[in-house]
Automatic annotation (TrEMBL):
<dbReference type="Pfam" id="PF13416">
    <property type="entry name" value="SBP_bac_8"/>
</dbReference>
<protein>
    <submittedName>
        <fullName>ABC transporter substrate-binding protein</fullName>
    </submittedName>
</protein>
<dbReference type="InterPro" id="IPR006059">
    <property type="entry name" value="SBP"/>
</dbReference>
<dbReference type="GO" id="GO:0042597">
    <property type="term" value="C:periplasmic space"/>
</dbReference>
<dbReference type="InterPro" id="IPR006311">
    <property type="entry name" value="TAT_signal"/>
</dbReference>
<feature type="signal peptide">
    <location>
        <begin position="1"/>
        <end position="25"/>
    </location>
</feature>
<keyword id="KW-0574">Periplasm</keyword>
<keyword id="KW-0732">Signal</keyword>
<dbReference type="InterPro" id="IPR050490">
    <property type="entry name" value="Bact_solute-bd_prot1"/>
</dbReference>
<comment type="similarity">
    <text>Belongs to the bacterial solute-binding protein 1 family.</text>
</comment>
Length: 428
């Protein structure tokens, strides 16, 4: 049977990249995708999937929108154990060790010709590959990646007598600015908080926005040891606690991840920390001028990277695995990485994406979109270990205990360290 021109092009593209071969006709992939941030992300993904199917008519993608990142990894692990694993998924980069330990995924090295693999893997920002590679293998391909950034309301800055074009550069500046930005009514009730750092969902990630500038790295590269109880880590937690409990410029207790942008839009918060993946959401919904900045420094600048990678599953057939690798490559090509970044606010995953005309034009009109990329120079890997969910939970639970006032910073980090050491003992 004579192949169509489009099928021929798809096959040629696969061979040029060096995949073991093009997917056979009528290959169907089940694709788990997490919906974890604001904005019409599912529509964007639907559109990209449809475009991929047009370019690769022998491959069909069945997209399953799997909820939050936590929901997604839980559903993936349940499906793997039940013999119904997806072919390909986007899950947190930090889920890499868990998926390896479960023998659920295959490295991309096995799906790409050796002479092409190095070029492909090196095309991404090194900061994003830190959570994508281990043991000399590449297990994840960066897709929707991020750093934490600070958003500020320029109108609120003006009202407080602050320079609306100048974000806080240091911890001390953020504390001082937050004090001026916090508003109270006649009865003393707060109507606008100076700053808000979410502590639900994945508080460990936001916490790394404090520990990294203070010179602390929370886990080793092998994912077998954490450093939760180091003095620099305790100091970072104490600063976060003090913003709420001592300075009273930050909401008390647990700050919800999902509602923080809404509080910012409603002017209940003047500065917020959240993912750059919320950038398009903020741009669409903030009815005031806002700025985006790198996180304030202590000893240095710094943020963890974040977000999701593509993974290919071991239970998939050889043809499905080849098609899944081709899908990951197609979705992360420079032009599409630029398109994805512009549509969502996630950081385009390769330097080449920032050289596209679309991205250059976008940055010329909206320079704030370049902040997360620039911060990559100071970024570290997101906390990731073996048995990552439990090790991260040990930290999350103790962070929340400290932020709600039931533990001191030192005790919380001592307890988190003890629990993590107990869990990781089996991996040393």
């Amino acid at each position: 049977m004579r192949m169509s021109r489009r099928t021929t092009l798809a096959a040629t593209a696969a061979l040029l990249l060096g995949f073991a071969g093009p997917a056979a006709a009528d290959t169907t992939l089940t694709f788990y995708y997490p919906v974890a941030v604001g904005g019409p992300v599912t529509k964007i993904v639907d559109g990209m999937v449809a475009d991929f199917e047009k370019d690769n008519p022998g491959i069909k993608i069945k997209a399953v929108y799997s909820g939050s990142y936590q929901d997604t990894i839980a559903k993936i692990l349940t499906a793997v154990k039940g013999g119904d694993a997806p072919s390909v998924a986007v899950a947190l980069s930090t889920d890499m060790f868990t998926l390896i330990d479960e023998d659920a995924i295959v490295p991309f090295d096995d799906l790409v010709a050796k002479d092409k693999a190095a070029t492909w893997f090196k095309s991404f920002y090194p900061g994003f590959m830190a959570n994508s590679q281990t043991g000399g293998k590449t297990w994840g391909i960066p897709f929707q990646r991020s750093t934490i950034v600070l958003y500020w309301n320029k109108e609120a800055f003006k009202e407080a007598g602050l320079d609306p074009e100048k974000a806080p550069q240091s911890w001390d500046e953020m504390r001082a600015m937050a004090a001026k930005l916090t508003k109270r009514d006649a009865a003393g009730a707060v109507t606008q908080w100076g700053v808000s750092i979410p502590s639900s969902g994945f508080p460990y990630w936001l916490f790394q926005g404090l520990t990294t500038p203070n010179g602390a790295i929370l886990a080793n590269d092998a994912g077998t040891q954490v450093a939760y109880d180091k003095p620099e880590v305790v100091e970072a937690l104490q600063y976060w606690m003090d913003l709420a409990q001592k300075d009273k410029v930050h909401p008390p207790g647990i700050v919800e991840w999902g509602t923080t942008p809404k509080d910012f839009f409603e002017k209940k918060v003047a500065m917020m920390w959240t993912t750059t993946g919320n950038l398009t959401n903020v741009r669409a919904n903030a009815k005031f001028d806002f700025g985006v900045a790198m996180l304030p420094a202590k000893k240095k600048r710094g943020s963890p990277t974040g977000g999701g990678n593509f993974y290919v599953f071991k239970a998939a057939s050889a043809e499905q695995q080849k098609a899944a690798a081709l899908f990951a490559d197609w979705m992360t090509k420079p032009e599409r990485a630029a398109q994805w970044s512009i549509a969502t606010g996630y950081v385009a995953v390769s330097p080449a994406a920032f050289e596209t005309k679309a991205m250059k034009d976008y940055l010329a009109g909206f320079p704030a979109a370049g902040v997360a990329r620039d911060q990559l120079e100071h970024a570290v890997a997101e906390l990731s270990t073996h048995d990552n969910q439990r090790v991260a939970k040990a930290l999350n639970d103790n962070l929340q205990a400290a932020l709600t006032g039931t533990k001191t910073a030192a005790q919380a980090m001592k307890d988190a360290q003890a629990e993590a050491d107990r869990i990781l003992k089996a991996y040393k």
